[in-house]
Fold this protein.
Amino acid sequence: MREFNYILKRILQMIPVLLIVTVIIFAGMRLIPGDPAVTMLGDHATPQALEEMRHKLGLDQSLIVQYLIFLKQVLTFDFGNSITLNAPVWQLFRQKAVVTLTLTLMTGLATLIISFLFGYIGGISRSKAVTKIIDTAALIFISVPEFWIGIQLMMILGLKLGLLPVGGWGSTWPEHLRSMILPAISGCLGTSALMIRNIEEEILKIRRQDYVDFAYSKGLKKSIVRDRYILKNVMVSTITLFSMRIVHMFAGSVVIETVFALPGLGSMLMQGILARDYTLVQGLVYIFAVIVLVMNLLTDISYSFINPRIRLE
């Protein structure tokens, strides 16, 4: 019952947050210089044609009326048709979400494997040289932008060695997955570096705790101490960081998708912004905001399963 009340309270707290998000989205799009009618018809369009297009798009109405229309779309989750692509926003979202979701899942999986492997080695290793090498590599990847890593991987593994495709999505699932390898590696290294440092520091801190020494003094196997006493306590802070970064991977896929020419949500969002496609951008950004809030809620709920001492209140 306590968990249900907590979830209900968090859902109710999302309502004012989402309302503020709608204001920010609406105002942000109107602050971008340019006229959607001019973008669609060109600079040589007649004033009459421009007026007709603005009327068709609803841009000749007051900002309050335009916002209320957007608010109605939000409440009904019916965002209308894209101005430039002439298709329902939800339909476009479903089509492009497959690409972005595949990229996010592969990036997340690669992040977990790399971060737990090297984070654990760095935290457990008695060798200062090993820890120093891992820390130095992590600092380098934290400092280097994702797009630069992606370009270097394209040049080396794609163009010079010809091992992997340098762009595109392919037509079959084997081709889809193969085309995601370079983007996933490019997107995961920065996050992996952050998580490696976090895991390493948490392990070093937990290893100094009295209950770990007591577990060893009882004669428990190292694997039991590692799984039940060290890694389980590391998971709480790690899940928090990973959930924040996985949302960043999903919502911030613009750079990676642009570098590797992937037809996902990020590239479509960028096209919508450049074309002043209010309907498309407003709908996509709002959906992203809902996904972020749901991910944060699921992260908080997962704490109580990982560590029973944490209660949802």
Residues 15 and 21 are 10 Å apart (CA to CA). The domain at 89-280 is CATH 1.10.3720.10 (MetI-like fold).
